[in-house]
Amino acid sequence: MVDRMKLVLDRTVLGITSVFTVILFLGAIWQVASRYLFNAPSTFTGELLRFLLVWTAILGAAYAFGSNQHLAITFLKNKFKGKSRLSVRIINDLFILAFAVLVMVKGGMEVVQTTMSQTTPILNMPMGLVYAILPISGVIIIIYKLLLMKEYKEEMAGREEEN
What we know:
Blueprint lengths: L1 H35 L7 H23 L8 H4 L3 H34 L11 H5 L1 H30 L1
Helix pairs in contact: 1-2, 1-6, 2-6, 4-6
């Protein structure tokens, strides 16, 4: 069940970021073509591409947390073996979970609410939509970390059976 949920979440996040990446690529080509071939630079693509890049990067970071490919200082974790190493991993993930809840979700929601009345200069859309990726990615990270905690629980149960 946990593996299935993680697989669905992985595919969804990767699918969305892949679509965003293709749009970024095509938008950049259009931006260059409109500027240099048609001498009429597109006004909306620059702003759209900036916002999509932010969304793609933050969603990609959420995926990295879910697949444990995020940047990490492994010095402390590598000093331990067995149960102690698992404890360090759990403590690390609890810090990540707290960051995702407090900064990304709670803080992100406050930023979204504050900036919803401000509009972007060219696309004329609420800035809150740009910042909405923070709480969305925060929720994704929380789901990933809770699924990982379930794996830790199973790993601990397996270690206890060995002893």
